[in-house]
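note to self — DONT lose this again. spent like an hour looking for the file last time. sequence + predicted structure for the chain T wanted, 354 res
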Amino acid sequence: MRKNPLFIFLTLATLVLFGCGVTKSGFREPSYTQPVERGTVLWQYVLDSSLEEKILALDPEKVREHDIREVLSHAPAPRIVNIHGGIYPVYLCMESFSQFLIGMGYPERKIRSPGTGSFSFSCYESSQKVAGAIAWYYEKEGMRPMLIGHSQGGIQAVKVLYELAGAFSNNLAVYNPLTGKFEGRDSIIDPITGDERPLIGVQLSYATAVGAGGLARFLPNQWIMAGRLRSIPDTTLEFTGFVIGMDLLGGNLFGFGPVNRYTANGKAEVRNVRLPLGYHHLNVPMTSHLAESQEVRDWINSYVPSDEPKLNVTFQSNSTNILWAADVWHSIKKHWVLELQRLVHARRNTADAR
């Protein structure tokens, strides 16, 4: 029977069809076009038990390059949503940062928009659109996204947190980045619980802003953030605010004093990080060069977060903006692991309940 040509043809056809739905890393990509139903997101990923055990064994605070290569690269990743600033061509900074992430091992498909292929939203785009897209990503991909804002994009990132908290409206609609349109619904199917829930209250796992404040606070599109920018709501589990000394564009009182400190207005974990003098407001996210050197990559992957980080080593290659990149990358790795572990636990709990 095994020598039968029809049997061989059907076997090969089955393998080809199955392979089309699976990435090289061994898991199926989410279906962005099929409606989400209870349990469909949790089980769209093909994760064998050995990979799940490796994921659960990872320490989120100590993720090394071999962990990315041997474990995380074989598993799905949360969506990263970037918001760039408003001065042309500052969007290129976020493209550079995205290339840094890709060079460090983060999947490009989880940074680029599935609709436009862009690496970031503009700070002039509707915060309702970004919030609606975050809810769409969470529903479709099963992991809470991460949000990174630079300059005016940092102000917009905090504004998105307030949109998700219902501060401006109780009726927030899902935005589909694949079609570029709002879907006319204000609820999603929670991928973990399988229950329908409103967009209001959807959480990010991590959000951060650098160079947010200063003169940009007085632009008309940011007036609504007066009195809110430094107060972080519960729509993110963790938030890091970066301030740069002598930053007229993005710092209050040139970046000095307590007026630059972010605080939680609820249970969010909030950190404040002061970058050293010499960091520049406009080009902080220009970091693609950092992933090109192995010694720089090793240092970044071993970085331990600090509220006032300092660089006490000298590299053979360019290390500009390394402290900002290292701190953000540490948080991204951390929440990549935590979201995966949350996904694995939810899958196992669902399997036990069947």
